[in-house]
Design goal:
Elements (H helix, E strand, L loop, with lengths): L13 H8 L7 E3 L18 E5 L13 E5 L1 H15 L5 H11 L2 H20 L4 E5 L9 H7 L8 E6 L2 H11 L4 E2 L9 E3 L13 H6 L6 E5 L5 H13 L2
Parallel strand pairs: 1-2, 6-7
Antiparallel strand pairs: 2-3, 4-5, 5-8, 7-8
Bound molecules: pyridoxal-5'-phosphate.
Pyridoxal-5'-phosphate binds next to loops.
């Protein structure tokens, strides 16, 4: 499971899936990168075996290091260590490890602010006439709002949101090209606000057919936002001038 999912911010009921899979000789794996371990704790649910975190994102927090973590029961971790690390060589470099360790010390502070800022920006986008809909687990309009309340801890729904800009691929492309303060990037979880338009950046026809993309819920005007730690007024001001030009 990848939850919240990229880029549609869809949630999986980890508790329900864990219950279904328990005792069935299955290994359940949750990619928890979008939430961070501060906000969602998949291993607290029975039937969940492994959690994956891209430490490149919120755990490190500054987009200056590449790393990942797998957390779970010792026997499974031992198998990963012996079979994969030994032969495939996915070993973190010492400087990245140092940067990530440093990042973990401020992760709670950063996550609190990411969540607060995301809520402000989600509400702003919901009121913006050029936006069709906003997908943020903290909004009452979120399709899986009750599940979001169960999964996310601390009344904080994280820094990731998606919204649908009216006018399809062209409007999405134009909006992103007109932004000055918000940075275009395929990564997330940084101190800076990062924006991504799948239909023109990561999910173009080169990688996936339009039909397949649409089936995955990645519509033409869908934009993904990783809300940073700046004053949200600055992010909103950039959006305002960007929306004016489309
Ligand atoms: C970025 C990301 C990954 C990959 O992590 P890297 O650290 O970039 O290798 C995996 N899952 C999710 C959900 C991600 O956002």
């Amino acid at each position: 499971m990848e939850t919240p999912s990229n880029p549609t911010i869809e949630l999986v009921d980890i508790e329900a899936v864990g219950k279904i899979c328990k005792g069935k000789n299955l290994i359940t794996i949750v990619d928890n990168t979008f939430a961070s371990p501060y906000l969602i704790r998949p291993l607290d649910y029975e039937g969940i075996d492994l959690v994956i975190e891209s430490m490149t994102k919120y755990i490190s927090g500054h987009t200056d290091a590449l790393g990942g973590a797998v957390i779970g029961k010792t026997d499974l971790i031992t198998q990963i260590t012996l079979n994969s690390l030994l032969y495939l060589g996915g070993i973190i470099d010492p400087f990245a490890a140092w940067l990530i360790t440093r990042g973990t010390k401020t992760m709670p502070l950063r996550m609190d602010k990411h969540g607060k800022n995301a809520m402000v920006i989600a509400e702003y986008l919901e009121g913006q006439p050029k936006v069709e809909k906003v997908l943020y687990p903290g909004l009452d309009s979120f399709p899986q709002r009750d599940l979001a309340k169960r999964l996310f801890k601390r009344g904080n729904y994280g820094g990731m949101l998606a919204f649908e800009v009216k006018g399809g691929v062209e409007a999405g492309r134009k909006l992103l090209n007109n932004l000055n303060f918000i940075r275009l990037a395929a990564s997330l979880g940084d101190c800076d606000t990062l924006i991504e338009h799948p239909a023109s950046m990561t999910h173009t026809e080169f990688f996936i057919s339009r039909e397949e993309r649409m089936r995955a819920g990645i519509t033409d005007g869908l934009v993904r936002l990783s809300v940073g730690l700046e004053n949200p007024d600055d992010v909103i001001a950039d959006f305002e001038q960007g929306f004016k030009l489309i």
